[in-house]
Design a protein that fits this description.
Blueprint: H1 6-11, H2 59-86, H3 89-95, H4 111-127, H5 133-149, H6 156-176
Helix pairs in contact: 2-5, 2-6
């Protein structure tokens, strides 16, 4: 088998026939055999699907509103339900009297120390309830696609009321936890 040198091949001189350019625009250089007038069809203006109808929120805003509302609700309801399941009434009363910051040392096997450890485990679980940034991004995108595909309509007032309802619900829930 003979070795081929790329340098030799690329180093060879070649003859190139010059090209005459009549005009800078290649469309003007085209010569038609039958110079019949051509009807120019203007493209129809296509409305952008991302552009919302007047008075409605765009799909990405709908997705963000819904996901944030659900995240706010789950972040208040689930910890409340978990607390009701994990702690007895007596433990809840004792929690009101002990230092949960961890700055007060309690005897190792005391009721207070055991309850404080249980409280810390509970707090760690509660931290995991809200959506993380990645989950939130994926859920907002999926909800926006759903809103666009189903042509969901949500007015800014309805979005505002959803957000307000979530906040008011969280505030109101505080009165039912006592």
């Amino acid at each position: 088998m003979e070795a081929v040198s790329l340098g030799e091949i690329l180093g060879k001189k070649v003859n190139v026939t010059p090209v005459t350019v009549l005009d800078d625009d290649p469309a003007d250089n085209f010569v038609m055999d039958d110079p019949e007038p051509v009807e120019v069809i203007e493209p129809e203006e296509v409305s952008d699907r991302a552009e919302p109808e007047h008075g409605y929120m765009p799909p990405d805003h709908i997705g963000e509103t819904i996901v944030n509302t659900l995240d706010g609700l789950q972040s208040s309801v689930l910890p409340f339900l978990l607390e009701m399941k994990v702690f007895t009434k007596k433990e809840k009363e004792l929690l009101q009297t002990i230092d949960t910051t961890g700055s007060t040392p309690y005897p190792l096997n005391s009721q207070e120390n055991n309850l404080l450890e249980k409280w810390k485990r509970h707090q760690e679980k509660v931290k995991q309830v809200p959506f993380n940034d990645g989950e939130k991004t994926r859920l907002i995108a999926a909800t926006a696609r759903y809103a666009e595909t189903t042509e969901m309509k949500l007015s800014p007032l309805e979005g505002l009321m959803l957000s307000f309802s979530e906040v008011v619900f969280k505030r109101g829930a505080m009165f039912f936890t006592e």
